[in-house]
Amino acid sequence: MGIKPPDTTNDLGQCSSCFCRFKASTQKAQSPRSRGVGQQVYESPDAKVCESCFLQSAPKCGACGKPVIGTVARVGETAFHPDCLVCSGCGQKLTGAFAKTDSGFKCANCRP
Length: 112
Known about the structure:
Elements: E1 11-14, E2 21-23, E3 28-30, E4 38-39, E5 41-44, E6 47-50, H1 51-57, E7 73-75, E8 78-80, E9 98-101, E10 104-107
Antiparallel strand pairs: 1-2, 2-3, 3-4, 5-6, 7-8, 9-10
């Protein structure tokens, strides 16, 4: 009983960050950090990364601290989930003009 070589017949490469292998049979990444549980593969023109690495590098929401994936609302250099960017006075989603105050962001109706 010997050691089997890795199966590379369905090999689609590896994560450019953690080097886990991508397999065509599952369309997922097999990552040692996830103990073999399949992960989504994220591609850009210059790299492929597994879900774990993508989430680590994604911008973090300035309100909730979770990774922002998809639509990003930016205030300066800070990223927000669109649903997290709300008025600190009335709680309404900020979509138009608003102001930054000492107590947070305020919509046009709540700002001083």
